[in-house]
Amino acid sequence: MTFQCSNSDFHVRSVQDNEIFAVRRQALCSSEVFRDMFTCCGESEEVLDLHESADSLAALLNLLHRPPQPPTQLKRDEFNHIPKVWNDPKTVIPLPLLPKLFELADKYALPSDSVVEVLGEHLLAHAPEDPLAVYVFALSQGLHHIAFKAVQYLQPMANYDLDEVKMIPIEAYHRVVQLQDTRVKAMRKYLLSEDIFPHGYGSCASHSRETVQLWNSKRMSLAVKIETLTDVAGEMEIAAYQEPVQSCAMCRKACIAAVEMLRYKCRKIPRTVDELNS
Hints:
Shape: elongated
Number of helices: 13
Distance between the termini: 44 Å
Order of helices and strands: EEHHEHEEHHHHHHHHHH
Strand order of the largest sheet: 2-1-3
Number of domains: 3
Oligomer: single chain
Low-confidence stretches: none
Number of strands: 5
Radius of gyration: 27 Å
């Protein structure tokens, strides 16, 4: 990582690599640690020696001089089975860099509102694609609000290898298993209780039997395959594009209504551990 400062008035040196960086003293003062250093050493020092590698020091100086901005959101989809936010990847700090940045922010007491909270937003931006890594790291840092949000994207825990989950505290692991079990049972319950013609309402005189058979066949097949991330409504929506439903206005209307009711019910199922506790 590189660092450049065009209007410098001070210098810091990486003792490990003997590399000097030109910096702005005022930018350093946003760190409590640097403020204390300047209070102790006064204004006479021209170079401040730090026992950091040049790469770590460059990362720290970038945080101080150019605090990170939140990722740029491209789209927010609240109607998905698991609501997602899509971010511009060019504005998201890569996941491998974030642990070091959090470490530096903590070590040098950087502002929580302008640095640490924004780093948390970048961490959460990786949750849809890499939920386990985000969840484990957030837990290790005590960032429970991020861990709670990341947990909704986790695959069934049985899908992960031991090496992938061994860093999760046993209590947290158990709560994730409980959450996923609750989700699967609730989705299965809603699926098996949602009829396409409830109490005969909206029944089609011409295709009622065939449509009911199609719906029941689809839901019975799906019920045994449900996992925590299964989009039950999305899977059942396929029935609307099969005969006789596709060609019959009444059957199609009933199918879409049943699918939307499933979608509504499934969105109310707890997605995070804190929702499970409430």
